[in-house]
Design goal:
The protein has a domain at about 30-90. Helix content is about 70%, strand content about 0%. It is built from 5 helices and no strands. Helix 3 (about 55-70) packs across helix 4 (about 75-90). The longest helix is centred in the N-terminal third of the chain and has 22 residues, at about 5-25. The chain is flat and about 65 Å long. About 5% of the residues are buried. Keywords: Coiled coil.
Length: about 110
């Protein structure tokens, strides 16, 4: 059997990925990025609530920035991104928009 063309493989991959996304939406399954965002928010807000908040945030920032640097990201830019997120999360408001497509119609209309 001859090998499929690149165009055909890409079309099949696109259809597979759409099925995966549709299935995740139906199951209301969070993505890895959804989990990572919530985890980072929880870590930052927990560090801010500590008595030694600045030291806790600095330690968290150092660990995250060090890993980003190991992956090839710029240290200063990574620090800036972390500080921007920490500032945004310090307001005490839940920073994420509701995922209306995951809610029932009655719940979504209440928001």
């Amino acid at each position: 059997m001859p090998r499929k063309s690149k165009k055909q493989r890409n079309a099949e991959q696109l259809a597979r990925q759409q099925r995966v996304r549709d299935n995740a939406k139906t199951k209301r399954r969070p993505s890895r990025d959804d989990l990572a965002r919530v985890l980072l928010w929880q870590m930052i807000t927990a560090a801010q609530r500590r008595e030694d908040a600045r030291a806790a945030l600095d330690k968290l920032s150092e660990a995250i920035v060090e890993e980003l640097e190991r992956q090839g990201f710029d240290v200063r830019e990574s620090e800036d991104v972390f500080e921007d997120l920490a500032d945004r999360y310090s307001g005490g408001l839940f920073p994420f928009r509701p995922k209306r497509h995951l809610m029932s119609h009655s719940t979504a209309s209440e928001l």
